[in-house]
Amino acid sequence: MAEDTGRDAKGYFTKGNKIGRGRNKGHIRLERVVQNILNEEITTKQGKLSKLEAIFQIQVVEALKGDLKAAVFLIERGWGKPKLDVVIEDPDTPKVKGFKFVVIEDPEEQDETDSEETN
């Protein structure tokens, strides 16, 4: 007997299934509520702005005053958080899925090679 997965041939949930019923009717997602509130327009000295734009304007002013948290907030939202490389000194180490291995040459060895090339 075939197991009822609650899905049709294309993999979509079938109507009335008990496995993947989805959201209840009338369910409001919090992110939509926040987006709607932040998209509302307000009037400022600069003219009409969304609440989100006003928040960013305030963050810019604070960052220019020297507030490091405001500056980081703006930079991370504008360009994303910096990606960190995992540095392993031994290049013969086996690769691990999800990590990028970076081989950094020893600056002292580089100076020795440069001096040998000039001689």
What do you see in this structure?
This protein has a two-stranded antiparallel ribbon. A two-stranded parallel sheet has the order 3-4. With about 120 residues, it is an alpha+beta fold. Helix 2 (about 50-65) packs across helix 3 (about 70-80). Helix content is about 40%, strand content about 10%. It has 4 helices and 4 strands; from the N terminus they run αββααββα. Among the domains are: about 30-80, no CATH class; about 85-115, no CATH class. The mean pLDDT is about 75.
Strand-helix topology:
Blueprint: H1 30-39, E1 41-44, E2 47-50, H2 51-64, H3 68-79, E3 86-87, E4 101-102, H4 107-118
Parallel strand pairs: 3-4
Antiparallel strand pairs: 1-2
List keywords for this structure.
two-stranded antiparallel sheet; flat; 40% helix; 119 residues
> Residue share in helices?
40-55%
Main beta-sheet strand count, sense and barrel state: 2 strands, antiparallel
Low-confidence spans:
none
Order of helices and strands: HEEHHEEH
Strand order of the largest sheet: 1-2
Short description:
Helices cover 40% and strands 10% of the residues. With 119 residues, the chain is α+β, with helices and mostly antiparallel strands.
